[in-house]
Amino acid sequence: MSDTVVTDGRAERSGPANRPAPSGFRWIGPMSALQAVMEEQGCDGGAIVAEAGIAPGALEQPEDFIGVAVLGNLLARCAEVARCPHLGVALGARASLASLGIVGSLMRRCDTLGDAIGALEDHLQVLDRGTLVHLETADDAVVLSCLQYGPAGRGGGIIVETLLATIVSAFRELCGRDWAPSEVHLARRVPDDGTALRSFFRAPIRFNQELTALVFPARHLGLKVSSADPERRRAVEKAVCELEAISRADLVDQLKRSLRKRLATGRCSCDDASRRFSVHRRTLNRYLKAAGTGFRTVLDELRFEVARQLVSDTELPLAQISAALNFSEPAAFTRAFERWSGGVSPQRWRHLDRGDDSIRSKMRERPRGAPDHRAYAHA
Fold this sequence. Notes:
Layout: E1 4-7, E2 10-13, E3 25-27, H1 34-40, H2 45-51, E4 65-67, H3 68-82, H4 87-93, H5 101-108, H6 113-123, E5 131-138, E6 141-148, H7 156-175, E7 183-185, H8 195-201, E8 205-206, E9 212-217, H9 230-247, H10 251-261, H11 270-276, H12 281-290, H13 295-313, H14 318-324, H15 330-341, H16 346-351, H17 357-361
Parallel strand pairs: 1-4, 7-8
Antiparallel strand pairs: 1-2, 3-4, 5-6, 6-9, 7-9
């Protein structure tokens, strides 16, 4: 396999491909179909990729990695040029279990759909260091959310929608082509034409939601996987765990993932995080300081990423976004947003021309005073 990694828009050589995604990167996977999808829309996808500074052919290698923020900006540009509000779903519809690499191989060998989802939730970090999936059970239904937890450029929502659609394609491969969720929740505005979305998901779609998620009956967790193979599953699981062991020392990434799952619950204090990591608070802070950051900085970076996406991509009332981020009141959220963005209020952010990169480039892309956690192409 190729060992090309795309970072900051450039292709660089960085060691063997059988390794976990570096911090801030994700598996190209279903994104390898981007140029084909753009051609279907009558656009020159190769030219747009070249304009982004990405080497020709770099996106055609699904087993390679790309910087999440680089990818997000590229997808946003592609969606604008093609006038394609369903770009993420168009990519995910072409995907399969193979698009999820070694994690897809593990899911294929699981006994039930619930086991496969557990494998995806536990091990997606091998492929993706910017997005996670989280399963919650509520009465007789389950909610499977796709959550962004790192910088993802202007197209973070498209990345998440691609993952959601990829998961649906994978479930149909595991459980049969007729599988469909009960509902789909999308953290985006209502599109002018939602035909393509409804045609793919084959379920009611709720727009302007706080989360991008699938809702389906809890009984689906017990659906049998026809390709289950316990012996092969153990072998693949061992290989996945070996890859995870390489990146397990990245405490900042682990902390962000943990906080993202609990952002709206109020369980996001340093004390709570210390208990989850089974270390003393002072020990956690010492580790974070050694990594060049601190607990409050990590939490603020995460809150800003989520806030920007919800403010930009949805029509949710700011009071609801404030509550989703666990602020005590909307005024506190507004003050924090202005501090993070360098003085831009959430109201003004929402009404700015979203396609004007010159305006956005003047805005701060991270909380004031936060260290610049850039991703580098090395294992």
